[in-house]
Design goal:
This protein has about 300 residues and is α+β, with helices and mostly antiparallel strands. About 25% of the residues lie in helices and about 35% in strands. The strands form two sheets. Strands 1-2-3-4-5-6-7-10 form an eight-stranded antiparallel sheet. Strands 8-9 form a two-stranded antiparallel sheet. The structure holds uric acid (URC). One of its GO terms (biological process) is purine nucleobase metabolic process.
């Protein structure tokens, strides 16, 4: 018997808090994975150590009511602690959360109960607890960004199969899948403010994307990670997976039209294949722990 885990995946929990006529919404997709003393479950079929996945599902919904959802991370911490400390055979809990953002329609008060889904990105959080140490990895996916200039790609290695033309002015676009690991690992440490941390980290990432004069997506990506490490002391590791969403200049010569970047051009936005540029950026002295090929949930 090798590594094994079980739990209920993708519990879609929506919590509404009423503050008079102004309502607040948290919309999560929560996946629980438990592991521990489970060999017999697989060998003999004894379920004595198995807390049903149905129970883990119920716990997610009950905790949303009992404890509220201050943040995806806080909620995941509550759940992981509960499973590991209340069930002797469970030695480790991993809670993955996707959070969907809602934006108020109109002002709080009159339109205080009307929301429109904010489609920019999905927020991610993964909380792992083994009874002693915490690991919190937060992040986001599907945050699509584009620079319409200040991006070049030239001076690269060439061989017999190279046809790509060098460019000093291209569109740089990607859909950010980023994760970052916190150095909060112990209950004795002061917990970060998860909501502020998320908003600020997201902002640093966007700012670095916008402000970097790019010689490659690799360089831009490194700047995004380095800016987070420089400004957010609670984060030790950032991992990015960035598709290079190629925008090719269309050849319009057959129609007697020049299609030149300098005075605004027409591009073909190709969806595949795409370059896939990935890296981990680390604080000095820290080790990489976010698996390179981790996907969600
Ligand atoms: O930013 C880029 N990095 C690459 O490694 C690469 N390769 C390529 O064909 N275009 C690009 N662009």
């Amino acid at each position: 018997m090798g590594q094994n885990q079980y739990g209920k995946a993708e519990n879609r929990v929506v919590r509404i808090v009423r503050d008079g006529a102004t309502h607040h919404i948290k919309d999560l997709n929560v996946s629980v994975a438990l592991s521990g003393d489970m060999d017999e479950v697989h060998y003999s079929g004894s379920n004595a150590n198995v807390l049903p996945t149905d129970t883990t599902k119920n716990t997610v919904f009950a905790f949303a009511k009992e404890h509220g959802i201050a943040s995806a991370e806080r909620f995941g911490i509550h759940l992981a602690r509960h499973f590991v400390t209340s069930q002797e055979p469970i030695h480790r809990a991993r809670v993955r959360v996707e959070e969907y953002a809602w934006e108020r329609i109109g002002t709080a008060g009159e339109g205080g109960h009307s929301f429109v889904r904010r489609g920019q990105e999905t927020r991610l959080a993964q909380i792992t607890y083994d009874g002693q140490e915490w690991e919190v990895v937060s992040g986001l996916k599907d945050l699509t960004v584009l620079n319409s200039t200040d991006s070049e790609f030239r001076g690269y290695a060439k061989d017999a199969y190279t046809t790509l033309e060098e460019t000093r002015d291209r569109v740089l676009a990607t859909s950010v899948f980023g994760r970052w690991r916190f150095n909060w690992t112990d209950d004795a440490q002061e917990m970060p403010d998860w909501e502020t941390s998320y908003e600020e980290t997201r902002q640093h990432l966007l700012q670095a994307f916008a402000e970097t004069y790019s010689r490659s997506l690799q360089q831009t990506m490194y700047r995004m990670g380095a800016r987070i490490i420089d400004h957010r002391g609670e984060i030790d590791e950032v991992r990015f997976s960035l598709p290079n969403s190629h925008h090719f200049l269309v050849d319009l010569k057959p129609f007697g039209l020049e299609n030149d970047t300098a005075d605004g051009a027409v591009y073909f936005a190709a969806d595949r294949p795409y370059g896939l540029i990935e890296a981990t950026v680390l604080r000095d002295g820290c080790e990489a722990r976010i698996p390179a090929d981790l996907t969600h949930p």
